[in-house]
Design goal:
The chain has 424 residues and is α/β, with parallel strands linked by helices. It is built from 16 helices and 20 strands. The longest helix has 14 residues, at 73-86. It is globular. Its main location: cytoplasm.
């Protein structure tokens, strides 16, 4: 079946499912393969549960009216998404960066939704499967689509751009993330700026942080851009008012107090303000959107439990975000501060060095206590209490904190440090 024909079918049945546990009536089931599963094995089950058609690539399956045999299911999904994107009217904002992508995406969505019919990537489903699924969620009445793009190797962002063809783009920052795949910080910068490369080559529009010298240096050849700054009035000036603990800022004499912890969230809020202003969202609506947004999914959440105030930032971590979290925690006003840090993943050969540097940084902060969890932190040379795993710490839970304290919990997703909350 040609992509044009498949797209006609998709318009009749405009819901995509890739998991038989979430089948909905009259959806299209795409039989994707994974490391430990083959969606082809579930094609008939999907049809029995209500899928209108199953798209498969197992040559042993018969090509019928409801079973559509293609050469490669994943590539077909991506081609369908690109074709759909070419035939939709929505403006697409591409978003990438080392830290803060998902929070920034949610903030931008909240702001633009004040005026436009807006959709965005769900969760952090931002890879070669998530991006096509986001594009295929664009409806005829969708006006703006915010497409988050993640990568851990070079050329991935470029590949996603060729599919999504964004009209606008923004990079949150460049940090020490996925060093295992990128090799170095220079590799990170090269990979992330593939978004800007695409936009400039196709004469599209760039949003940027004018206080980030790397971003500024990459955009010297275009005037098709708009930047925000906390330092220079020749850009869209957004003043940082503080973060103790919540980020507050001022724009056009209007003060905005968010519910986000950490000064590092200032640029995330500023990006949303920048785009809201560009798309003519009233400043009162921008203020309302940012002030009503509440963090979730273990991202910069503040929890109160017994005598503890817990800053839960356990969604993900890399050396850059860990450093920012510690510095912000250091500036926070509190009598007793305890930092509980979990391993940072995907650092490759840099893992030992990066974990030691974070342990050394934490030592300089003079917190009441620092607790390290994970195989990499366990190898560091430090006097802090160290545990090779969460379970090792859980066995000695009564030693974590016994008096009133403000506690930072920060670690990579694989550490699942949100489990600590139940130990207090």
């Amino acid at each position: 079946m040609k992509i044009e024909q498949l797209h006609t079918l998709f318009l009749r049945f405009p819901v995509i499912c890739t998991d038989t546990r979430t089948i909905t009536e009259n959806c299209l089931f795409f039989a994707l393969k994974g490391d430990n599963f083959d969606g082809n094995s579930y094609a008939y089950e999907a049809l029995e549960k209500g899928a209108s058609h199953a798209i498969v690539d197992d040559k042993n399956l018969e090509n019928t009216e409801t079973v559509i045999l293609v050469d490669n299911v994943l590539e077909t999904l991506q081609q369908l998404a690109k074709y759909h994107r070419q035939h939709c009217n929505a403006k697409i904002i591409g978003l990438t960066g080392s830290n803060g992508k998902t929070t920034t995406k949610e903030l931008i969505t909240e702001v633009l939704s004040q005026k436009y019919n807006t959709i965005a990537t769900k969760g952090n489903f931002n890879n070669h499967i998530g991006v096509p699924l986001t594009l295929l969620s664009i409806k005829p009445d969708t006006e703006v689509a915010i497409v988050e793009m993640g990568a851990n190797h070079l050329r991935e962002i470029d590949f996603l751009c060729q599919m999504a063809m964004p009209d606008y783009g923004y990079i949150t920052n460049f940090g020490k993330a996925h060093l295992e795949g990128f090799g170095s910080e220079e590799g990170v910068i090269k990979a992330k700026t593939e978004l800007y490369d695409y936009l400039l080559a196709n004469k599209k529009f760039v949003f940027f942080n004018a206080d980030d010298p790397i971003q500024v240096s990459k955009l010297t050849t275009t005037t098709n851009k708009l930047g925000f700054s906390n330092q220079h009035h020749n850009y869209l000036f957004i003043k940082f008012l503080g973060a103790d603990p919540y980020v507050s800022l001022k724009f056009k004499e209007v003060q905005i107090k968010s519910q986000l912890v950490g000064s590092y969230n200032f640029t995330n809020c500023s990006a949303a303000v920048l785009m809201g202003d560009y798309f003519n969202v009233p400043i009162t609506a921008i203020k309302s959107a940012l002030e009503n947004y509440t963090p979730r999914n273990n991202r910069s959440q503040i929890l109160e439990k017994n005598n503890f105030k817990i800053i839960l930032d356990a969604y993900n971590a890399n050396p850059s975000s860990m450093k920012a979290a510690l510095e912000n925690f250091h500036e926070l006003k509190a009598d007793r501060k305890i930092a509980i840090l979990g391993d940072m993943f995907e650092l490759g050969t840099s893992a030992e060095k990066e974990h030691q540097e974070i342990a050394d940084l934490a030592r300089k902060m003079n917190f009441e206590e620092v607790i390290l969890i994970g195989e990499n932190f366990y190898k560091t040379k430090t006097e802090f209490p160290k545990y090779a795993s969460f379970n090792a710490l859980a066995k000695k839970a009564e030693k974590i904190a016994t008096a009133e304290a403000t506690i930072l919990i920060k670690g990579s997703r694989g550490m699942a440090l949100e489990r600590l909350v139940d130990l207090f």
